[in-house]
């Protein structure tokens, strides 16, 4: 059972890293501290951006739960 949890952690971790790296990086930290952001400082996310953000949140929660389950599950 522990091996299955390990495999799930690796798969979910890979999906989490991929969904984070695919997100748009247009604003950056410069906009937070008054730098030029190339436009608005805030805009609503639509379509793929919203999907990637929501999937990153969900995958992060699943990853955390699986990590906790790894220590609870017996061999």
Task: Report on this structure.
The protein contains two helices and no strands. The protein has 75 residues and is an all-alpha fold. It is elongated and about 50 Å long. It has a domain at 1-22 and 47-75. The termini are close together. The chain has helices spanning 2-21, 48-72.
What is the terminal-to-terminal distance? 6 Å
Say how many strands there are. 0
Provide the gyration radius in Å.
17 Å
Number of helices: 2
Structural class estimated from helices and strands: mainly alpha
How would you sum up the global shape?
elongated
What portion of residues is helical? 55-70%
Indicate the low-confidence ranges by residue numbers: none
What would the average pLDDT be, to the nearest integer? 83
Major β-sheet annotation: none
Strand content: under 5%
Along the chain, the helix and strand elements come as HH
Function: Involved in protein export. Participates in an early event of protein translocation.
Subcellular location: Cell membrane; Membrane
Pfam families: SecG
Keywords: Cell membrane, Membrane, Protein transport, Translocation, Transmembrane, Transmembrane helix, Transport
């Amino acid at each position: 059972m522990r091996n299955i949890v390990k495999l799930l952690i690796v798969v979910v971790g890979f999906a989490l890293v991929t969904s984070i790296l695919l997100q748009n990086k247009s604003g950056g930290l410069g906009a937070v501290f008054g730098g030029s952001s190339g436009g608005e400082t805030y805009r609503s996310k639509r379509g793929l951006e919203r999907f990637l953000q929501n999937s990153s949140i969900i995958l992060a929660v699943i990853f955390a739960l699986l990590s906790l389950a790894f220590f609870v599950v017996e061999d």
